[in-house]
Each structure stands twice: as C-alpha cells, then as structure tokens.
Design goal:
single chain, mainly beta, Tumor Necrosis Factor Receptor, subunit A, domain 2, three-stranded antiparallel beta sheet, 0% helix, 26% strand, elongated, TNFR-Cys domain-containing protein, TNFR/NGFR_Cys_rich_reg, TNFRSF5
Length: 86
Amino acid sequence: MATGNCTNEDQYPSKTGGCCGRCDAGSYVEAECDGNQPTKCAKCEHGFYTATKNHMKSCHLCRVCSSRTCELKPSCVFDKDARSDL
C-alpha cells in the first residue's frame, strides 16, 4: 500500500488513507489492501462481469438478451457483457 494522491489509474484511495491497487477487468475486490497486504481480487463468477480495471465490491450481472439479434453477438464473459442491437 502506498500513501499519497493515488494519481495512477491502477490505484484508488483506501478507507485508511493510502492507495490500493485496482482489480483487472473480469475481477472485483474481495478484500481491500491494508498496511501489510495488497488488494485481494477475485474472478467474476459465470453470469457476471466487470469490463475495466475497478475497485468494485461485486461484479455486474450480465444482461439477458431475448432478441434474435443477440444470438448473433458474443455472449457475456467475465470481462464483457452480452451484446445486442436494442
């Protein structure tokens, strides 16, 4: 954990006043960093995703496509939501 302004896009301000590392796309913060441990990230489960580096406490729920156009587009994976032409 670093102290300071967290100007790096790979970091975010922690509750304790330092800077924690963001989790990669496809994962979320399972445990925030502290003075001894870095941010602990966990992979999104099937049906959930995060599209960018983040410090979210959970993943987004994938959208459910009901249109036929959705069947032709990629389905949801851990780092991307399903695409449809709505």
